[in-house]
């Protein structure tokens, strides 16, 4: 009879995480709708103007009574900019909560040192307990690697190098599931940082065109010059909104990428710790 050799199954303890992309699709749309409602019914409340206009979608109000109501006269790009700002805030909050959770309950550097100490004493269960306390992305990757680490300590079929490769592969698989979660939705912040200023300039250009068109239609004089200055002032609200939104998006994008880089470094260090410790203790 032919003998069959025992083979090691390429099983993995890493489980794919199920995440919903609903916020990625719904948030921008809902924020644009909210931006229009703020512009139309908040800033454009008839009580904020000396001469309220008629119409439902875009009433032509005149003589604003407050500085905020002047923003309404900036044009139809204003609600788009407000919606863009709300979208930016939504993803800032979402990323802050996600990255805070992924950072774990304590310092990743201290956590890795504790795991190194437990592994040096060959106390793998205590190292796993440290992972349960730490949580976060580094804790999850370390825990996945430790399960394979523990399995390899009792494996008699593979060489030391093969065991180290198995642990490294487990860490890489766990890392490949953690990193997309960390970087998810950052593209919205980077996109808003790029287009918010352009939207503001577009609104300003449209407002300037409208202001100079009104100037050309008038007979001239000091009244026309005053109306032109008011039109330019209203148009510049678009620029202010666009630049402000872009600045906030850039700041938070850089903050989040810096935090993600720190978590990624911790993940890399945890994988190096597992493979080097195993290679030195289980030759």
Question: Can you walk through the features of this model?
Answer:
The protein is mainly alpha-helical. It has one domain (23-45, 58-281). 75% of the residues lie in helices and 2% in strands. The protein contains nine helices and two strands, in the order H-E-E-H-H-H-H-H-H-H-H. Strands 1-2 form a two-stranded antiparallel sheet. The model is unreliable at 1-10 (pLDDT under 50).
Task: List the topology elements.
Layout: H1 22-43, E1 49-51, E2 62-64, H2 67-72, H3 77-102, H4 108-120, H5 124-134, H6 136-153, H7 160-183, H8 186-217, H9 222-281
Antiparallel strand pairs: 1-2
The gross shape turns out to be rod-shaped
Span between N and C termini? 35 Å
The profile of the biggest β sheet is: 2 strands, antiparallel
Mean pLDDT: 86
Q: Uncertain segments of ≥5 residues (pLDDT<50)?
A: 1-10
Order of helices and strands: HEEHHHHHHHH
The percent range for helix content is over 70%
Evaluate the radius of gyration: 29 Å
Strand content range:
under 5%
Number of domains: 1
How large is the count of helical segments? 9
Question: What's the total count of β strands?
Answer: 2
């Amino acid at each position: 009879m032919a003998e069959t050799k025992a083979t090691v199954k390429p099983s993995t303890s890493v489980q794919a995480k199920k995440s919903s992309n609903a916020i990625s699709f719904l948030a921008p749309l809902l924020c644009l709708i909210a931006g229009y409602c703020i512009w139309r019914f908040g800033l454009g409340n008839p009580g904020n103007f000396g001469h309220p206009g008629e119409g439902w979608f875009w009433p032509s109000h005149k003589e604003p009574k407050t500085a905020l109501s002047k923003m309404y006269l900036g044009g139809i790009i204003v609600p788009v900019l407000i919606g863009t700002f709300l979208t930016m805030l939504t993803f800032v909050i979402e990323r802050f909560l996600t990255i805070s959770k992924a950072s774990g309950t304590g310092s990743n550097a201290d956590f890795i040192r504790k795991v190194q100490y437990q592994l040096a004493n060959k106390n793998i269960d205590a190292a796993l307990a440290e992972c349960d306390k730490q949580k976060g992305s580094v804790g999850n990757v370390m825990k996945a690697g430790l399960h394979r680490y523990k399995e390899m300590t009792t494996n008699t079929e593979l060489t030391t190098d093969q065991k180290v490769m198995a642990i490294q592969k487990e860490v890489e698989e766990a890392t490949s599931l953690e990193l997309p979660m960390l970087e998810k939705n950052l593209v919205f912040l980077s996109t808003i940082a790029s287009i918010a200023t352009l939207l503001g300039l577009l609104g300003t250009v449209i407002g300037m065109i409208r202001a100079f068109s009104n100037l050309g239609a008038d007979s001239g004089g000091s009244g026309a010059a005053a109306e032109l200055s008011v039109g330019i002032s209203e148009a510049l609200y678009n620029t202010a909104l666009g630049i402000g939104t872009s600045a906030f998006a850039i700041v938070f994008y850089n903050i989040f990428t810096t935090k993600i880089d720190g978590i990624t470094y911790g993940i890399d260090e945890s994988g190096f710790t597992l493979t080097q410790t195993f290679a030195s203790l289980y030759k």
